[in-house]
Amino acid sequence: MGGAAEAAEAADAPDVPDTAAAPAADDGSSSAPLLADLMPWSVAPLRLGRGWVMAPDAASLRARWDALVRAEGAERDALFRSSRARTPQRAVAQLPGRAAGTGRLAREPGPFPEPVRVLHGAYDRQWLLPDNRLIDAARPELWRVADDRQLFAVETAPAAHAAQAAGGAGDAGPAVVASALLPDGRSPAGRPGRIRPLYRRPRGREPNVAPRLLRLLGRRLGGKVTPEDLLAWVLAAGRPTPRGCAVPLTGDAEAWRAGVELGRRLLAVQLRGARGGGKPRLPGGRRPYVRAAIPARPAEVSYDPEEEALLLGAGRISPVPRGAWEFTEGGVPVLEQWVAERLEPAEPGTLAAIRPAAWPQEWTSELLELITVLALLAELRASAAGGGAAGPYGAEITAAELHAAGVLPAPAAARRPASVLDHREEGPEGQFALI
Asked: What's the rounded Cα separation, in Å, for the pair 258 and 109?
């Protein structure tokens, strides 16, 4: 994959490489291989550079764009919030599959870039303006392979789990989460991880899996192993270590079947109805409801464990299982962080300050869904942690065995993006380049 535009963009993102900066490959000295070895191509998190390009609601993004376009000269520059990578005078290539302008924003803003839904962190679904001129490092290689067949595994940074263990602060959250939406890869703990697409090319072609791994697993387990099976196993069996997510592999067919089944249940909950699955539902017919209306600007968020109630100022939602309230990402409580993202004040006069004046109904619907998702994930994780479906692992396939079989280390080419030659992408100022 190449081109002068992308080379320039890579130079603008020195914080984290776009391709293979995952933890070093396992050399076989430890029992379980790392996810970095099993799914070798990874991409760094998106680096927005300016917070106003993402919002919990799409209407605010339209209003922010309109305010930016109406402004001129120095006022537009001030609203834009320039960085070394992006200024209104900078022309860059179009994001793959998106119809935003490629001219200099200062001269021709072009059409409104219709917002897209993205996964912010591990559990927050927000909206993003998909305009490469607005984002410091949008990671075009991710957009190039994002379609209705793609799934993304987002690995939590090892430092988040190491810090939790050192501080004795409890569970830092899952080592890996999955998404059908393009993820930004960020963590509320401020420790970004890595994004690993399941497929290296559009339309579900070329699995992002170490060559010969699926074949070896199939021989040991006595049946075909698909990329989706491997992802499900990773979700069920992956565990955080200081070096990255370790993935114990098993040669026991029954243990594999049970682990994949648990992983598929975890995946279905995290996808929230995408890929043809049903919307998550709590067992026993339980559903969280709004018992008292949420005020326009809730002053605080708290939890009543006896009543299983989430309190947002005078607003009240129940039942909210305790597992949902205590669920964390990188050591940060997910529900509290979700509400804070929508209520924390922005600097007056900035584009980020353009936001709903009152709590929208759509946020309530999203919050009820998130409560259900977290409650189900807490139950499934408790099952896995208790030696449930994913363990014990039986006859374990070690990293040393994978090295001896020639599966590891994965070749260097497997850690780089694949070339995509079946479509054109618009470069800066409207020029086209074959990628």
From this structure: 53
